[in-house]
UniProtKB/TrEMBL annotation:
Keywords: Nucleotidyltransferase, Transferase. It comes from the Bacteria. PANTHER family: HAD SUPERFAMILY MEMBERS CMAS AND KDSC, N-ACYLNEURAMINATE CYTIDYLYLTRANSFERASE-RELATED. Coiled coil: none annotated. The keyword Isomerase does not apply. Pfam families: CTP_transf_3. Transmembrane segments: none annotated. GO terms for molecular function: N-acylneuraminate cytidylyltransferase activity. SUPFAM superfamilies: Nucleotide-diphospho-sugar transferases. Gene3D superfamilies: Spore Coat Polysaccharide Biosynthesis Protein SpsA, Chain A. This is Acylneuraminate cytidylyltransferase family protein.
Length: 235
């Protein structure tokens, strides 16, 4: 693979935690942590922030990074990240730039490092269509319960719910930070979930993804802990 793109989606209209992509975090707007990690990884021909928001665009450009002003119809919470990436690729190809691989890096996971990104991109060359940064579930996923319309709890996996944890393979989940995929697979499946996916395991302390004010409080606590232990960059 020769041409690699890092695309950082950063909408302005987040609802649960307003303006989350540019919240001040440890001395700089949130989005810039991901921009810097992508740049410092040295893995990409292009690093670009996709946004419809002028304030986000101004912050990113002032810091020296590229911005793509996404179409207005892709600025709502109804547009998927895959839609944003596919539309950007289509415009790039019309302009004569073709990419072999794309890495979607979420701005709300600022503790993910350049080394994490490098590890994900290296795995993408190991005979797979996609790589997700993952972490383990805090609780056995096969014991998950849903509340039905009558208010009763029902097992999500009734055939497994009574099994001991050691009898069920460990559950993993994408940690909301880093998703790499070949452009061929992205076009075929139109999602980041093709038939062949490998996982890059990240520690829980670096796997914080921000959606709520409580998440942000937890993020700050983890960042201070990592700084004390010397396990993260320039925090």
């Amino acid at each position: 693979m020769n041409q690699r793109l890092a695309l950082i989606p950063a909408r302005g209209g987040s609802k649960r935690l307003p303006r989350k992509n540019i919240l001040p975090f440890m001395g700089k707007p949130m989005v810039l942590w991901t921009c810097e990690a992508a740049r410092d990884s040295g893995c990409f021909n292009t690093v670009v922030v996709s946004t419809e928001d002028k304030e986000i665009a101004d912050i990113v450009r002032t810091a020296g990074f590229s911005v793509d002003e996404r179409p207005e119809e892709l600025g709502s919470d109804m547009a998927s990240c895959a839609d944003v990436c596919l539309e950007f690729l289509a415009r790039s190809e019309k302009a004569g730039t073709f990419y072999d691989a794309l890495c979607c890096l979420y701005a709300t996971a600022p503790l993910r490092t350049a080394d994490d990104i490098c590890a994900v991109m290296k795995l993408l060359t190991s005979g797979t269509d996609a790589v997700h940064a993952v972490s383990g579930y805090d609780h056995p996923p096969h014991q998950m319960l849903y509340q039905n319309a009558e208010g009763f709890l029902v097992p999500a996996f009734p055939l497994l719910v009574t099994r001991k944890s050691q009898e069920v393979p460990e559950g993993l989940i994408g940690n909301g930070s880093t998703y790499a995929i070949t452009v061929t697979a992205l076009r075929k499946y139109r999602s980041f979930y093709p038939s062949r996916i490998k996982g890059y395991r990240m520690p829980a302390l670096r796997s914080i993804d921000i959606d709520t004010a409580e998440d942000f409080t937890f993020l700050e606590a983890c960042a201070h802990l990592l700084k004390q232990e010397g396990l993260t960059r320039d925090i």
